[in-house]
Amino acid sequence: MSNESNSYKLTYFPIKALAEPIRFLLKYGEIEFEDFRLDVAQWPNVKDKMPFGQVPVLEMDGKMVHQSVAISRYLAKLTNLTGNNDLENLEIDAIVDTITDFRSKIAVFNTEKDDTRKEVLKDNLTKETIPYYLTRFDSITAANDGYLAIGRLTWADLYFVSLLDYCNGVLKKDIIAEYSNLVKLREKVLAIPSIKQWLLERPDSEY
Amino acid sequence: MSNESNSYKLTYFPIKALAEPIRFLLKYGEIEFEDFRLDVAQWPNVKDKMPFGQVPVLEMDGKMVHQSVAISRYLAKLTNLTGNNDLENLEIDAIVDTITDFRSKIAVFNTEKDDTRKEVLKDNLTKETIPYYLTRFDSITAANDGYLAIGRLTWADLYFVSLLDYCNGVLKKDIIAEYSNLVKLREKVLAIPSIKQWLLERPDSEY
User: Fold this and answer.
1) Which of A60, A70, A86, B34 could make an S-S bridge to B93, C-beta 3.0–4.6 Å?
2) B133 neighbourhood in chain A, CB within 8 Å
3) What is the least distance, in Å, from the CA of B71 to any CA of chain A?
4) Among B31, B65, B86, which would you mutate to test the A interface (most chain A Cβ atoms within 10 Å of its Cβ)?
5) pLDDT-based confidence at residue B4 (cuts at 50, 70, 90)
């Protein structure tokens, strides 16, 4: 491991969502951290102290770092879940950013306040976006020996599986149920002992 | 340089937008590439051949790679515009993803079709989002010896400056005009000889 800090504090809302990839990676690496969960009532007081007014924020030895994907990539380096060379890391980064695109489309639906527009978004998601992305993620997993990139476990797999609870929670169904390679991938990731333990101990939340 | 390919072909629309960071980095590294610009009429035939139906796509020795930020990070490694260690790269990645968030908010406005909603989005951008982000980018640049991260030129600077044409084109004004540290940063990046040359030779486009 390189550049490791002595203390880690993760600040986020009391949900999985964008913080769960960070939690999965910290747990995978058996790195101790404070899992600080803000009450929504606390948020207005905390927001201004956060870089760009957003969470999750990871404090490492007191230094605040933001952006969940950047943090995840860093933790992946600490826990040996990155590629072996620049081209492998490019392959991982490309699928991670595609998973983020997919997750963002679900977030747009989740935060839409206009009922009519929300219905249209749900329809697009269900009939187009979700099958479009998941068919491709499933094929990619089949072509990569059961993983999302470079034929072995990487942080892309933890990133995807840890975000599924958010996607499924928003859509109120298991969106990958019909995609057998993704189901198997989830089983593998959730069977990693430290992740399995985390699922038993983590607080309940809608997503 | 590591993992360098022999041939590079970039496919995108005849605009700057998401491809311009890739073009800047290829030019910065003096890496020859085919700058293939699709007519909109060609797009329906090309879309299905592209990974996840999107461009920009960079072909490296014939292998297609997508996701502009992932590609930019890879090219930054080839051209020595990354950090010296994992923590420096985390700092760069975090600001890059924040620039992407900022650019995405401008893209949401740009693609909105409902006139009333578009007006609201423009108002939010002008009064809140743009000053919020640019004030912070400006302060960060002041605190980093005139750069967006780690006190020296990195791909975060090329990424930001190359996307400004898109942001300015959509908003029909120079959004950084009042932010002196960002103006100076842009001057520095655009004065790099290979970038300066690129600005003289690149095709005109609205953004």
Assistant:
1) A70
2) 52
3) 7
4) B86
5) confident
The verdict on residue A176 lying in a domain is yes
Cβ within 8 Å, pair B2-A86:
yes
CA distances to A15, A37, B73 from A40, rounded to whole Å, are 11, 9, 35
Among candidates A2, A52, A91 on the partner chain, residue whose Cβ is nearest the Cβ of B98 = A52
In a domain, A138, yes or no: yes
Instruction: Judge if ipTM > 0.95.
Output: yes
The single-letter DSSP state of residue A59 is E
Question: Best of B48, B55, B58, B67 to disrupt the A interface by mutation (most A CBs within 10 Å)?
Answer: B67
Residue A4: the pLDDT is 76
Q: Is residue A169 part of a domain?
A: yes
* Largest separation between any pair of C-alpha atoms in chain A: 51
CA distance B98 to B159: 11
Average pLDDT over residues A82-103: 98
Strands B57-60 and A63-66: unpaired
DSSP one-letter code for A42: G
- Residues B52, B31 share a domain: yes
Per CB-CB distance under 8 Å, the chain B contacts of A133 are: 52
Is residue A132 included in any domain, yes or no? yes
Q: How confident is the model at residue B1 (pLDDT cuts 50, 70, 90)?
A: very low
Q: Say what the pTM is.
A: 0.97
Same domain for A120 and A158: yes
Helix crossing, B155-171 with B86-111: angle to 10°? 10
Q: Does residue B175 share a domain with residue B95?
A: yes
- Is pLDDT at B145 greater than 90 in this prediction? yes
Beta-bridge mates of residue A125: none
State the total domains in chain B: 2
What φ, ψ does residue A134 adopt, rounded to 5°? -70, -35
Same domain, A32 and A105: no
Minimal C-alpha gap between A66 and chain B (Å): 6
Q: How confident is the model at residue A3 (pLDDT cuts 50, 70, 90)?
A: low
CA distance B195 to chain A (A): 24
Range of the domain at B68: 8-80+194-201
pLDDT at A73 over 80: yes
- Asked whether residue A67 falls in the same domain as residue A92, the answer is no
